[in-house]
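REVIEWER CHECKLIST
Item 1: Sequence provided? yes
Item 2: Single chain? yes
Item 3: Sequence as submitted:
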Amino acid sequence: MPFKIAHHPASCLPLPAGHRFPMAKYALLPKKLLADDIAKLSQFFTPTMATVDEILTTHTANYWHALNTQTLPPKDCRKIGLPMNQELIDRERLVVGATIECAKYALTDGISLSTSGGTHHAFTDSGEGFCILNDVCVASHVLLDQGLTKKILILDLDVHQGNGNASIMADNANVFVMSMHGEKNYPYHKPKSDLDIHLADGMSDDEYLSLLTQHLPKVLDGFNPDFVFYQAGVDVLADDRLGRINLTMNGLYERERYVIQTLFDKGLPTVVTMGGGYAPDIDVIVQGHSLVFGVVKNLMAIKSH
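Item 4: Structure as written out by the authors:
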């Protein structure tokens, strides 16, 4: 059974020359998935913008008003690190809408992936680290509010701790945030998640996979979620400029294979968002992101036989 992939052309906006955010990956990833026969054109769907009501499940009315009217103070814009304009706000609404619609597809198909998403540094009333609206937290609140799920696991394997996720979900007993991230890496203040696994600089494939395989089954058995959002950041790769972890491409593949297989075996509806990736060679980022799609394709093929 083919899985659905959210992609919108507006998820790739032009940025000033030399900007360190690799925006081009959002245009290149769908092309690679098609070229490598990982996905067919018919699997892609064009998401719609998240509604204001959906955004307000998570973000404050004052913050949304400042974004929507382009009146966010300059210091708050600097923390986000992207040139603020109406196109960017529309893009962020599409990113959130994509994750919400992926969640609805995952409930029927078992899994759905977005070519964007995972904006885990956005708080209820502010953004930072290239994140403006928190797509996974909004989608989690929408699912819970509509009674579509009861217990959600946010599995965040981006190299940077999802401080927005940790903060937003701190008092929500229906959401468990598990984050594996660089101990000495950004953000420097890390609010407590339900489970924080701190990674030492320079960690290898074997050490990383050992920690993951040790902790994920315990969380699944202990919390017993009925839905998972998986943040599949590829900034754990050795060549990443902002990562400080030494995963090989094969180690990243093993991570994706283990996570998706484990969630499949438990029959857990899953949404995969891309998260970060900052290797100097954008082809390395795109190749890294494509791995999880290939893993899903192969496992879905096995499942359908």
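Item 5: Key structural point noted by reviewer: The chain has a mean pLDDT of 97.
Item 6: Recommendation: ____
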